[in-house]
Amino acid sequence: MGTMQDHDPGETQEWVDSLKAVIAHVGAERARYLLGKLRDEALRTDTMPPFLATTPYRNTIPPGQEEKSSGNREIEHKIRSAIRWNAVAIILRANKESSELGGHIASFQSSALLYDIGFGHFWRGASDDHGGDLIYVQGHVSPGIYGRAYLEGRLTDEQLKNFRQESEGKGIPSYPHPWLMPEFWQFPTVSMGLGPLMAIYQARFLKYLEGRGLAKTEGRKVWAFLGDGECDEPESLGAISLGGREGLDNLIFVINCNLQRLDGPVRGNGKIIQELEGIFRGAGWNVIKVIWGSAWDKLFAKDKAGILLKRMEECVDGQYQDFKSKDGAYVREHFFNTPELKALVADLSDEEVWKLNRGGHDPFKVYAAYAAAVKHKGQPTVILAKTVKGYGMGESGEGQMISHQAKKMTQDALKQFCERFQIPITDKQFEDMAYLRFADDSPEAKYLKERRAALGGYLPQRRRKSTALTAPPLANFERLLQSSGEREISTTMAFVQMLGTLVRDKAIGKYVVPIVPDESRTFGMEGMFRQLGIYSAVGQLYKPQDADQLMYYREDKSGQVLQEGINEAGAMSSWIAASTSYSTNNVPMIPFYIYYSMFGLQRVGDLAWLAGDMRARGFLLGGTAGRTTLNGEGLQHEDGHSHVLASTIPNCISYDPTFAYEVIVIVRDGMRRMMEEQEDVYYYITLMNENYPHPAMPAGAEAGIVKGMYLLKAGDSVGKPGKGPRVQLMGSGTILREVMAAAELLKKDFKVDADLWSVTSFNELRRDGMSAERYNLLHPTKPRRKSYVEATLEDHAGPVVAATDYMRIYADQIRNQIPRRYVTLGTDGFGRSDYRVKLRKFFEVNRHYVAVAALKALADDGEIKAEVVAEAIKKYGVDTERPDPWTV
User: Fold this and answer.
1) Of the candidates 253, 145, 152, which has an alpha carbon nearest to the alpha carbon of residue 193?
2) Is the CB of residue 583 less than 8 Å from the CB of residue 615?
3) DSSP three-state, residue 648
4) How far apart are CA 828 and CA 885, in angstroms?
5) Are 752 and 724 in contact (CB under 8 A)?
6) pLDDT in tens, 224-279
7) Which residues pair with 265 in a beta bridge?
8) CB 757 within 8 Å of CB 710
9) Kind plus residue range of the DSSP H or E element containing 21
10) Is 467 exposed, middle or buried (0-12, 13-18, 19+ CB in 10 A)?
11) Average pLDDT of the chain?
12) Burial call 166-180: b when 16+ CB within 10 Å, e when fewer
């Protein structure tokens, strides 16, 4: 298109003049309408020119259309300057003796204005008539947020002085961490990419609550701050199509485009702002570019030939970074590099050339962008604000490659910093690097307080408790606590039946949030499609193909199920939004997110860790769990380690139940802890797709199920010394059934008796053991405390053998709690596709290996002869020469 010749310049000029006339006499809106009609006709006649993903490299909002702030610019500048100083002082004081603690100065200095305009004019706190806006701050700017909170009187000198010194409980964390500051920070965001991803699903969840009539969320906004370099994280942009597709006009991204990554330019050879504009426009977002400050407006007005914009568009980001690391004379020489360009700035001094600022540092431009964003309807908005990394740091980091790592400033740079921002500081305060706070009766303090009062209260601020929900009694699930008789079901089926009971519960049913990543039919949940409906922002605009079926696919604006497609990270983000709704919305929800266990903690482990930090409360259900239960799917899909991963998250409570009644007891107790007691824990429960009969719950088993272990069946010789050798057999999940079968083999073939233990959670047993161990370490003169495992096993003699469908390290965790011989079997290695019976033989966790392991333990204890073990190996056809299964 760019190579086409103009065969009739006169006619071309007539068209251009006509457009100019419409703009001049009727306005830009009419011009846009006419261009739209021309576009429609061009599409109809197949003469549409190529799509342009970007607009010119200048501000989206023309100067004449900028909404003006009614705020006091002078006072706001003083407040902002004091916050800038506090942010610097926090880092410099922490690193005065050593740089060991670290910290970041440059990120906040580049975005101080972006936050200040939001705090001062736009971001609503939670109040009686407004649920509050939700702000995802960029993790590295935390010193600036602390600096403002100190100015507001919300943080103390002691807290700021102990920045990044938290072990004694006096300090404040390096980044936003709700676990460490549970009444301050709302969202952990420093693991880059997760903040923007969660913000999208948070905004959608607000629409979900509104659609279902559970909360009034109209008027609430979700603001997410991220860096241009952060946009290279797949999570940052991976879900933006959802925002455009569902018209999330309650969502605003502010991307701080300081053109720098941690090590250098984001797009040294290109333009990151133009690239991001094209991406977001293509995804259906409203894009507002804030590139140039007000000082440029006069130059644009003076430039009738368009040479300034042409020069701006030909420069790449690497050059822009270079310009801002130098001075006005350098900019005059290298940016205004032609006689025509030099003539544009001939009447400006070098200092004035240097003050030709970027838009992200101009309060008028930023205010206008925010005002336009909050009023925009039908689309999410992204604001691309051009700034300078390390703005104001001078020789210590402004616009330099080393900006991100800078944690110190020279005295000269610090003095220039104070002069540049007119920071109201005395020589003594400068020398001491004292934190600044305005006197209570000062105009600045009053203004600061008035602005936040007008907006509903201080931010960030986090709600710790909400309305408690009462967990239904176990009696409500009586059918699932009884024997299934000859009917074979899976624990997945038992869970789905329990979920069906919960959603019908009149007291709590509406608060249940079923979440699936396009696997409802796999888990037998398709019945909920019609019963509950799948949430959709627009309802259902089509007749589903299966409309004549009982369980047809029904989408609804008030749908209860969140069906996220093939999108584990998105589904997890929805779960996080629901599981923290008690805090963000004062509406407690009970989310159940079920997925292939291999694609949970392994695939979205960073989000799972974040959920712990964020004090999430909800249920993760790892379906088709274990390395030998999803027998046809093979290496990629078979999970032998999700419980090991779960153990790394301190407040993740994980269970591997075998029977329906165990699932019921665990889920019900989880609801009691999280919804009634409002404990900041969440649950991971593995479910299997293997069908088998389920017994009734043994009397008095509830407490042991929750603790992590209980006696499923006592051997015949319990309490009868001298009646022959005895072993203690432990199992979890589907492998417990192999352990039960092994007990029968030992009894029938070798006259060895066994007590059978169902271990629902080796992870919880380990934590109990650590607690007892620590108590004994710190109380040497007190009676020794026994762990639950040790106390429970002390009346049951014989070596202990444990088998699971997970790596051996899972069961190995309780080894030091068993003061006798302890043998573990597990499924270390890559998965395989085959029949379950063959897989369990391959991984050496079937009944025969359990029996052999028990006999070997007895032989090692001198209870039987070694020849008995050899006999069993031969009898059960165990291959003694095959390679280790974890090596093949």
Assistant:
1) 253
2) yes
3) coil
4) 7
5) yes
6) 999 999 999 999 999 999 999 999 999 999 999 999 988 889 999 999 999 999 99
7) 260
8) yes
9) helix 9-25
10) exposed
11) 94
12) eeeeebbbbbbbbbb
